[in-house]
Amino acid sequence: MTTLGSFPALAPLGIPGKIIAVHLSYESRAAQRGRRPKHPSYFIKPSSSLAATGGTAERPAGTQLLAFEGEIALVIGTAARWVSEADAWAHVAWITAANDLGLYDLRGNDKGSNLRNKGRDGYTPLGPELIDARTVDPAALRVRTWLNGRLVQDDTTAGLIFPFAQIIADLSQHVTLEPGDVILTGTPAGSSVAVPGDVMEIEVDAPTAPGSPTSGRLVTTVVEGRGDFDPALGSLPSVDELQLEEAWGSREAAGLPATVVEEPAEPAALRDAALRGAPQEPRASRNDESPSQASPALSPELRAKLLTAPVAGISQQLRKRGFDAVSIDGVLPAKPGMKLVGTAKTLRFIPARPDLFAEHGGGFNAQKRAFDTVAEGEVIVIEARGERGSGTVGDVLALRAKVRGAAGVVTDGGVRDFATVAELGLPVFSQGPHPAVLGRKHVPWETDVTIACGGASVQPGDVIVGDDDGVVVIPPALVEEVVDAALAQEDEDAWVADQVRNGAAVDGLFPMNAEWRVRYEASGAEQGAGETGQHL
């Protein structure tokens, strides 16, 4: 074993050029979070976040969710680029303990980058000893974490979803792993929250290897740091139920009420207050700061245009550009006359199966996560495979979406509590009412992925527009071009309608031949006339 010593030198290989961390890699952690990734995913931590054993980690004043994560750290010894799984482990020189600290108060607003959440100074303690990778079996390593002397994490690499060799080989397809680079390989169940005064200890060892090599105890003490964040420079720390649950590890540990599979009846007082338009829950905990931040494609000016343009006209302009399958078919508004404009937040259901529903249907499942984290200006778009034989949203979740400032909900399935949902004032488009609960036909599976809804592909961030004619999906890059063309066509159609109203025959006028086109252009209508809004 080689002593790390004090930073800034990471002996014997120097300060790492990259610190790459794996999001979710242990079966125990996946079970705790209620989701199991198909492939590994990663984020980067800056080298300025490194700290040695015996140091401190600051929790800024006014924050509450400093989470610790005991992890096995791999130190690359020789450059790896396009290496196979069979050769990957040979590129690892050392193994040690790491604490992948994160401030969940900042996690939501970072939208997955983890820079402010996990990249703060001192948020990657490492060490204290290095284990020679050549002397151990990577499938027989153990990581343990103690909080104030109590063992809270204890797992082995036998519980990995993705073996270390796969992680190294996968990363090497995309970046060159250089000598000294550090890979943080994910944390098992038991990660939780630490407060000022708490002491965290993490140890990695190989208990079945000769000599039982160990990293020794990596010790870090939490202290309070400055927290006077300037709101003029960036978003402030905020906490919602999702961050509470994921920082603490479970709803129970976070002190949150247990969730149930079926939607409970909505309290009459809460429902009545919503229908009266009475003040409800503040939106300070939302992940996005404003409607314009929900999607850069929707400036206030562009949103105003979309609210004016009819879906039929938008659909026509999309077809002219080769986009024929952009209508979400079979859905109508819960209340006629509603206009829907926003950016997509997606939710996917899969067909019901008892074992899968038992695993994914309860607790803070994908459906509840979508409605509890929807940002202002977003539309929750649900893939229900056109199955209208159960509800995919009910009055409580619709109310939650309204309270958070969602622009609406679109589902190619059914809606429970249909009359109450219609009166909430939230634009909801669906296949119609159904009294059954979700589990009769569906398993809530995942959010924020590409889905199919009513025959249309929908990606997170796509622009969704709906009215009494239906709902269309607009690729963000085409929005301004399409809406301007649709409004121009509306002006033209309004002028044509005026001519018909005054006795003109439609032959040659609709669509316009060259003669009528000259008369239209001479009228100046194309410069913004047609304010009657009439169209054929």
Automatic annotation (TrEMBL):
Keywords: Metal-binding. Residues 276-297 are annotated as: Disordered. Transmembrane segments: none annotated. The keyword Metal-binding applies. Residues 19-222 form the Fumarylacetoacetase-like C-terminal domain. The keyword Lipid biosynthesis does not apply. NCBIfam families: PRK08245.1 (NF006093), PRK12764.1 (NF009399). This is Fumarylacetoacetase-like C-terminal domain-containing protein.
